[in-house]
């Protein structure tokens, strides 16, 4: 509780005690009306002096239609009509409600801050052999920083000494810790769990992951959802309309009574009008909607999903078309041996052995994946280079070498054809490496990008969550694209696209859909940035994705897991549901109570419930958005 | 040019009014207030004198909502 809140609390307690005391005294002694009025004025002024002051200042500045004005008019009016207890009580409950609201908002601010408690306070830098704590802002690129167990990694960098386990859950929502050793890249915001490590920084603090994330979340509330803007506009018309209605309610019926020759009951109608005013306060609506969105965004961040604005969270609920980039999004973006097809009497093991030894000197990703596959299969840590001699690389075709006396050639079709070797098998998926031994075809090895293990389930979940069509865009060949699409159950594939073609394909999808349907694009690479910004909702893979893609995206998935998209949709829907509940509930209760007040069926107590009670319930409902689970 | 300021305001409706007041200040191209983070983001028109514009904006805010503050 801050100072302001404590101050109000003390005033609430004092005036509550005074009020109860006066009611008791009044009951037993039956005091004179004027004495009573003065007695009730004491708690009323204790609790309400600031409201009266604000209302008065508002009138001087011609800003009459705010809630202070409503409260002042209603309570002063009640006093004038001799409803002393109600007048003081209304003011008291109004202040209790305000206090509660400010505490609830403060608490959810704190909750969200705790979710995002990843800001590092210092970095350990070695100065003249001594470790000193310095502001992360002052650390230059290339400095070696020391991270002890239990500390947060303050700046992005590469491990240069030590080995450890990192807790990445604050960034990715992923609970399995990650092992790192020398030469591994690590991102700031992770917590070092086991061993001391030294990191050579590769970025400045401002450019590091942790600063970017904090910046992004703090700015997210600036991009307001349509519903939020609607309510703000609504409140702007609502308050004056209610005030004039109240005025009409106080004047018109008695005047009609006069015209009809009846006795005008001014008192009754003025009390009704005042009750009407108390009910009307729009705060429940105005506060609960941004609070719900902020809660939803906070909940998403704690699951490793960064949403850049309430508007995107809102739009995601209407997503009907999910467009994916292939490499790095649905697939790992890493090449692996996925098939070994020996020909003749050679074994799979032997084929892989020959190919990997022939490729021993190459740094090409395909060669690396061949060697990795062989070493895993043979259960060895390193390969014996002395077995290979006479390595001859043929540009754009492959490599020829002598492996333990056998003449081996590994490469594409061209390499085989130039040596007059006949390929007797055909494989369409992935990249195919043909292998020959002593001039005869020995078989082929297929290397392809591995589909992410979560991808298939993720796409199914999206369908279950109301996505009409999962679409894939790729620069890859038709055979590779169709193969991946059929494995994952993708509805529509566009292949062999140049970066510019991807934007055109996206345009076509956007022009094709119904206006209220939204198109989301999920991607990770640099050439995705234009498509990310063209889509209604751009979703970027954060951990592997490029900075440009993250910049252009509206939603960032920190752990690259496509299954998080349906979780994000779920959070979005739930948040919107809470928002709608609050709008319907608050407006509904208010309208009913306004009607009851106009008919004379509502008293001041009901009015207090309609104002403060509705606001409290709406705020409690809004904080549920923080706790959405899968 | 864009700048972000910390603000102090008690209710959401008041924050909305402040936002409107800042937006209507000459020299301000656009403004958004986030009541949840208590931050005001102002986009200035080209060549605007930031300090002068902001003190004017604060004055306008005080008119619509007395109990508010922009930490300039």
Architecture per CATH nomenclature, i.e. the level-2 architecture of chain B: 2-Layer Sandwich
Q: Give me the number of helical elements of chain A.
A: 21
Number of helices of chain B: 2
User: How many runs of DSSP E, i.e. beta strands of chain A?
Assistant: 22
Distance between the termini of chain A: 33 Å
Principal-axis shape of chain A equals elongated
CATH C-level of the domain at 333-451 in chain A: Alpha Beta
Arithmetic mean of pLDDT of chain A: 83
Order the strands across the largest sheet of chain A as they lie in space: 10-22-21-20-11-18-19
Strand content of chain B: 25-35%
At the first level of CATH, the class of chain B is Alpha Beta
Helix content of chain B: 25-40%
Shape of chain B: globular
How many beta strands in the DSSP annotation of chain B?
4
Order of helices and strands of chain B: EHEEHE
What does this structure look like?
The complex is a heterodimer of chains A (630) and B (72). With 630 residues, chain A is α+β, with helices and mostly antiparallel strands. In chain A, the strands form four sheets. Chain A has a seven-stranded mixed sheet with strand order 10-22-21-20-11-18-19, with helices on both faces. The radius of gyration of chain A is 35 Å and the shape is elongated. With 72 residues, chain B is an alpha+beta fold. Helices cover 38% and strands 35% of the residues of chain B. In chain B, strand 2 (28-34) and strand 3 form a beta hairpin. Chain B has a four-stranded antiparallel sheet with strand order 2-3-1-4. Chain B has a single domain (2-71), classed as Alpha-Beta Plaits (2-Layer Sandwich). In chain B, 43% of the residues are buried.
């Amino acid at each position: 509780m801050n100072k302001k809140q404590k101050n109000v609390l003390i005033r609430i307690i004092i005036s509550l005690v005074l009020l109860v005391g006066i009611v008791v005294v009044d009951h037993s002694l039956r005091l004179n009306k004027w004495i009573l009025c003065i007695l009730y004025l004491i708690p009323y002024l204790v609790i309400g002096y600031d409201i009266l002051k604000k209302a008065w200042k508002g009138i001087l500045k011609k800003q009459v239609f705010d809630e202070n004005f409503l409260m002042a008019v209603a309570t002063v009016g009640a006093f004038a009509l001799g409803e002393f207890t109600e007048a003081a009580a209304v003011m008291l409950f109004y202040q209790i409600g305000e206090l509660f609201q400010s505490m609830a908002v403060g608490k959810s601010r704190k909750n969200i801050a705790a979710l995002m408690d990843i800001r590092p306070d210092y970095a350990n830098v070695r100065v003249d052999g001594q470790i000193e704590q310095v502001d992360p802002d002052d650390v230059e690129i290339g400095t070696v920083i020391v991270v002890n167990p239990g500390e947060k990694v303050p700046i992005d960098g590469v491990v240069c000494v030590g080995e450890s386990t990192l807790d990445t859950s604050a960034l990715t929502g992923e609970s399995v810790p990650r092992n790192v050793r020398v030469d591994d890249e690590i991102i700031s915001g992770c917590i070092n769990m086991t061993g001391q490590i030294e990191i050579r920084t590769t970025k400045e603090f401002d450019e590091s992951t942790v600063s970017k994330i904090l910046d992004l979340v703090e700015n997210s509330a600036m991009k307001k959802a349509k519903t939020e803007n609607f309510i703000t506009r609504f409140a702007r018309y609502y308050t004056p309309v209610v005030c004039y209605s109240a005025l009409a309610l106080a004047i018109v019926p008695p005047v009609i009574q006069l015209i009809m020759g009846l006795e005008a009951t001014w008192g009754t109608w003025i009390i009704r009008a005042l009750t009407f005013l108390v009910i009307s306060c729009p705060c429940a609506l105005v506060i609960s909607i941004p609070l719900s969105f902020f809660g939803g965004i906070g909940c998403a961040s704690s699951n490793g999903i960064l949403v850049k604005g309430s508007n995107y969270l809102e739009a995601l609920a209407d997503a009907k078309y999910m467009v994916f980039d292939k490499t790095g999004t649905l697939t790992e973006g890493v090449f692996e041996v996925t098939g070994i097809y020996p020909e003749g009497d050679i074994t799979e093991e032997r084929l892989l052995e020959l190919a990997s030894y022939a490729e021993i000197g190459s740094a090409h990703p395909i060669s690396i994946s061949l060697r990795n596959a062989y070493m895993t299969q043979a259960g060895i840590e390193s390969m014996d280079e002395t077995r290979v001699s006479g390595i001859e690389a043929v540009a754009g075709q492959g490599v020829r070498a002598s492996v333990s006396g056998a003449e081996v050639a590994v490469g594409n079709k061209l390499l085989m054809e130039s040596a007059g070797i006949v390929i007797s098998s055909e494989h369409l998926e992935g990249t195919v490496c043909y292998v020959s031994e002593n001039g005869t075809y020995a078989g082929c090895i297929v290397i392809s990008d591995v589909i992410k293990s979560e991808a298939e389930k993720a796409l199914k979940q999206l369908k279950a969550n109301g996505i009409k069509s999962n679409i894939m865009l790729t620069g890859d060949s038709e055979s590779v694209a169709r193969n991946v699409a059929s494995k994952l159950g993708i509805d529509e594939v566009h292949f062999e696209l140049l970066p510019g073609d991807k934007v055109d394909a996206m345009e076509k999808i956007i022009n094709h859909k119904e206006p209220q349907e939204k198109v989301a694009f999920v991607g990770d690479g640099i050439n995705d940035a234009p498509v990310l910004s063209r889509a209604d909702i751009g979703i970027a893979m954060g951990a592997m994705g490029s900075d440009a893609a993250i910049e252009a995206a509206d939603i960032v998935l920190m752990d690259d897991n496509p299954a998080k998209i349906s979780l994000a949709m779920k959070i979005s829907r739930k948040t919107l549901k809470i928002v709608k509940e609050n709008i319907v509930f608050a407006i509904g209760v208010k309208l009913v109570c306004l009607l009851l007040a106009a008919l004379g069926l509502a008293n001041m107590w009901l009015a207090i419930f309609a104002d403060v009670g509705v606001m409290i319930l709406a705020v409690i409902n809004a904080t549920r958005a923080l706790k959405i689970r899968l | 040019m864009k700048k972000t300021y910390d603000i102090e305001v008690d209710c959401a409706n008041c924050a909305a009014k402040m936002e409107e007041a800042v937006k209507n200040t000459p020299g301000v191209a656009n403004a958004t207030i986030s009541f949840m983070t208590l931050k005001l983001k102002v986009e200035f028109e080209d060549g605007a004198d930031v300090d002068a514009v902001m003190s004017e904006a604060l004055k306008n805010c005080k008119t619509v909502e007395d109990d508010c503050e922009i930490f300039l």
